[in-house]
């Protein structure tokens, strides 16, 4: 009889964690009896797996008292679900689900999946952020049977900042449906978009328009680059910073296309915000460079998928993930890099988050992009290397490792 796996996440909707949750649900179902659980369905399930779903029907709450009541209610309901399903292992995705998973523990084994850096996450701030980092995570995380991190560089954070036993920590990188991404990347963009690609070299980036992705400095870099040579910059995605980014681009004198305004799609613009796309890969593959200015990550899906498309990638050496993906045999530097670093599978760049060095760091980006846009041979080599590396992130390799971890926990 298959062992019973319960997977829990706070909410659905659009996000990298939700995509990973879907992939795990689909792949683990091949060896285990998988049920999903979610706090509520306030956001649509954009990545349905077809597996059974338990909706706990507990909202977030509008004030501190209501949030506390709902938090307790989630623990009670998850405990009941675990008992009813005779759960053998409960795997939680994202911090809120981790707390509820740990506090509802009975006889089942508990595995937490840490999707990104906690130490460097600027969304964990203020009094509540201090409480999470200094009290909740150190107190609760050590109670897990295993903690899986998506990047090697999250391991030291768990040990040094949150007091987790190193023996409980395991690294399993995120994975991608490599064959499907490559197949989808071969689909042609429409004639209007093809005309844009034919006009000038295209820099492209993909991700939520949010503080983590740090796209604003990229606009500054691109504006300076345009003074040296023609180029286009394409943004795939949407998010809460949409208006701010458009305003910033226009303040730089850039001509901005906005898909949500039903603008006429022509080569006359400098910046193209094309919004969410069902198939982003067909836009990425024919572009000249993939640029990724994130302030922090976990093991970024967007970067891995761009590599799978065979496009050369230029990314910040942010915590965590990019260095592990592009220069896996190198060690994480003690201090942020201040110059371009050519990894085996792509280009690592200074982060764009430090006010003191920002001007110089942006100049490094401008010089590097200018040089790459002028060197087709190097771009071809980098694209081939990136695609080769992406084979290491296949579902088959990743979920073989997950099965080993789950079975080891069950055997304890």
From TrEMBL:
Taxonomy, superkingdom: Bacteria
Domain Glycosyltransferase subfamily 4-like N-terminal: 15-179
Record domain Glycosyl transferase family: where: 195-327
Pfam families (alphabetical): Glyco_transf_4 (PF13439), Glycos_transf_1 (PF00534)
PANTHER family found in the cross-reference section: GLYCOSYLTRANSFERASE
Protein name: Glycosyltransferase
